[in-house]
Amino acid sequence: MLGCAIVGFLLLRFDFSAVAAALQHVDFRMAVPAILGLVVLHLVAAVAWRDLSIRLAEVTIPWWPTITHYYAAQAVGSITPANLGSDAYRLAAIRKPAGGWGTLLLPIVVQRVTSSAALTVVAVAGLVLLPSAFSTRLIVLAGVGLMLVSAAVVLFIRRPRLLAGPLRFLPQRLRPDLGGAARPARAWIAALTSGLSLALAFHIGSIAMVYVLVVALGGSGDAGPVLASIAIARLSILIPLSPSGLGFQEAALTVLFLQIGLTAELALATALLNRLALLGTMALGAAFILWGRTGTRRRRCDGAHHAYRGSAD
């Protein structure tokens, strides 16, 4: 609700007719491939989830359930604060693994941590391309803070003994079995390197697609500051108050575009097209759920010793 209120305020605060005019004159030859690209890029994140599941949980999810479960999770996560519903859906969908529920929670948590870290790195790198301003520094500092919190999460799951105190308050049946946390340091380094690399590919690709949307709307100027603005505004998806940073991302992009000489209306038009891509991703995920194509048959995991079972249709 808060995110929707912010978007509504922005549309009322600025010239809505100018936003509508920008959308009417969008170059569909560029905008449509960019929107489709934003939808398809989630395949990179799905690959990261599968890879981390193999490395940290010794569970290989077949490719089709990996893709369908991931897109279905995006449909669920897009209506929950900080997309936490996506993580919960994936954990519930891959049910009855060989280990406890914590076994498959581990790669999901690590993926979220590496994704947050990769996005923060990209945003901080883009900071040098923007004029110095308190608002910009504040946004990036918030991202760095979230990255430090993520690093603390990795430390706790890497050293399960640190979790012994907090977990003792949970019933025995609810305590996670973080078996992957006991893996050698070399295996952890490989997993984190893979997770960060794929997360960087996902976020950089997404930022590039949004930049194409800016160009399709007639945006001009140096590419560097525009890309940096998009990257820094994207940090708002980490704010645990609205789904996918709804409202906060639009507000941040508006402030940053004004700082580099672009219009607020262009920022809002870009954000709306970006949200259209998100709706496409949600629709695809919802279709997988409704059509029962997320996979239910019991399968032997490829290249692993654990059995995998998908969610019920």
List keywords for this structure.
single chain, disordered C terminus, mainly alpha, 313 residues
In N-to-C order, the SSE pattern is: HHHHHHHHHHHHHEE
Strand content: under 5%
In the sheet with the most strands, the strands line up as 1-2
**Number of helical segments with 4 or more residues:** 13
Q: Which term fits the overall shape?
A: globular
> Could you give the count of β-strands?
2
The N- and C-terminal alpha carbons lie at a distance of 30 Å
Query: Which structural class matches the secondary elements?
Result: mainly alpha
User: Low-confidence parts, pLDDT < 50 over ≥5 residues?
Assistant: 157-170, 296-307, 309-313
Number of structural units classed as domains:
1
Write a brief caption for the model:
The protein has 313 residues and is mostly helical. The chain is built from 13 helices and 2 strands, in the order αααααααααααααββ. Helices cover 68% and strands 1% of the residues.
Q: What does this entry look like structurally?
A:
The chain has 313 residues and is an all-alpha fold. The protein has one domain (26-308). 68% of the residues lie in helices and 1% in strands. It has 13 helices and 2 strands, in the order αααααααααααααββ. The chain has helices spanning 2-13, 16-24, 28-40, 42-57, 63-77, 84-93, 101-126, 134-158, 164-167, 185-216, 223-234, 248-259, 264-290; strands at residues 299-300, 307-308. The protein has a two-stranded antiparallel ribbon. Strand 1 and strand 2 form a beta hairpin. Helix 7 (101-126) packs across helix 10. The radius of gyration is 20 Å and the shape is globular. The relative contact order is 0.20. Mean pLDDT is 77; it is low at 157-170, 296-307 and 309-313.
